[in-house]
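Protocol step 4 of 6.
Sequence for AMP-forming long-chain acyl-CoA synthetase (Candidatus Atelocyanobacterium thalassa isolate SIO64986) entered exactly as in the expression construct, tag removed. Do not edit the line below.
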Amino acid sequence: MTTIREYRNLQALSEIWAITATKFADIIALYDPHSKPEVKLTFSQLYEQLKIFASGLQSLGILENEKICLIADNSPRWFIADQGLMLAGASNSVRSSQSDPNELIHILQDSDSSILIVENIKTLEKLYSFSNQLNLRLIILLSDEKDDVTIPVKVLNFTELMELGKNFDLRPTLKKDTDLATLIYTSGTTGKPKGAMLSHGNILHQVRNLDTIIKPEPGDRILSILPSWHSYERSAEYFLLSQGCTLIYTNIRNFKSDLKKFKPHHMVGVPRLWESLYEAIQKQFREQSAIQKRIIKYFFETSLKFISYRRIFNCLSLEDLKPSFQKRTIACMKFIALYPIHKIANKLVYRKIQDNLGGNFKTLISGGGSLAKHLDDFYEIIDIPILVGYGLTETSPVTNARTHKHNLRGTTGQPIPGTEISIVDPDTRQALPKGKCGLVLIRGPQVMQGYYKKAEETDKVKDPQGWFDSGDLGWLTPMNDLVITGRIKDTIVLSNGENIEPQPIEDACLRSVYIDQIMLVGQDQKMLGALIVPNLDMLRFWVESQNLHLNIPSQNDSEILLHNHDLYSQTVQDLYRKELKKEVQNRPGYRSDDLIKIFDFILEPFSIENSMMTQTLKMKRLVIMKHYQVIIDKMFNS
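Step 5 output, structure tokens:
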């Protein structure tokens, strides 16, 4: 790609936008259809806005390498602030305005930020209500609200800053790729968040190399829903915009309608997002007539066989990485025989699903957690390419990814250019051969410089040779694909000494239509247990279909949730035991210790709002366990 070559010698992220302003001048870069008024910026307009914002900061005496805390959520103004301040010579620390105020105060103080860019007055007042000892010299609102807060710091709104910038000549700043670009703080589920120091070179490595995963074309539409400040969405946005794509902002409320309206070509998301689309489609199937449901079931079962045989023939089956010539020949004959039915199913069923999702998808990219097998299978069946990537905040984040040419389901793909993966024994740190499970170490240009002001913490995860300890467990295939099996800190050790990785079992259990969320527990116990958030709509549907006289609550019916319901009836308990046993036993590598023997229902879903999920919708296991410790103890002691 010509454009990628033009980025090879850049030293700073902010240098990208002068190139895009020339190459893609009249293409829409950022589009927010849900703001009032809606915002559309071409690449040339975006670059002008960045320069004005940077000039405004310089007119206020911003210092070279000064740290600015950016507390705001997805919008074109977030991007203008992020890249505008870097163009002015500063670096930033970032977080959502919806985050816990104590966490925001910690980030603001720990990052040594002297300037605060904040979403609006409401967020600013929230911060000052928790602490009036913020060592700031300037506050900038991303809104156009007038300053009516009584704090002893100069406050400007977005328009006022831009007016200053229009009357001040931008001074060029010289950056090295080793200079700090941003501090992204870890989720802090096991303590206070730590600031991962990502340099311009760390993130530019992503911009220069993510084309090995996805090859967008100028003008391709991208639907953006993940938090822009998060390393996954952030690096993806920088890369996709560097290729001339149009970034369209959406949100949970408008997501499904925006899929149809804007017909995106690419999208990055987390497993929970793809699960929500899958569940919505399954709900539509359940509303069909009995004969339609049987036909749909037959089509999906046939297509599952079709893709399974196709994977074997293409040597892309994780269960059989080196099939014999005879096995490949048989698989070829079988998938050819099934192709006509798969083709009919595509015309009658799958094409309609694709149209409901916009009908234009070239690529979905899943990251931020493992993708359950049933989701991988489903999207392959309906012919929407889904790729899986792997990485951490500390690795900027992408280290591995599946590609269209080498889409080995069940893995997170091969390392991207410049990246090394080593699997070692967690205790001895001795390298393990391919196929053996151990601790995943990572080395490459995208690995962070360290944790800000925490040399001791940095030394725990990054050795003198540059190897970063991911904390994940996994193994490598002969073709160097990485398979993640869990996290060391998440491993459940039963009293018999068996180590259980919860994520694959949880993913299997989520195949049950009666389970909305699930978290395994059982450390030092004789057996595995689970906290289950039931799918109450599906459970009521089942009760009605069985002509049972049971009172199953609605998720929003607080009175019934607290008191009069039949969730703990023997009939419902038996249903869930049967579902758990079926899904766990059907997963590859099943062992008897994997069986979930006891469980309890949790009627409040894990969410960002109740602090039980991260911004990228991963469970905060320690937070959940602490919150429900009484229930867990009772479960194992009854």
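Step 6, annotate. The chain has four domains: 2-175, 271-384, 407-485, 491-637.
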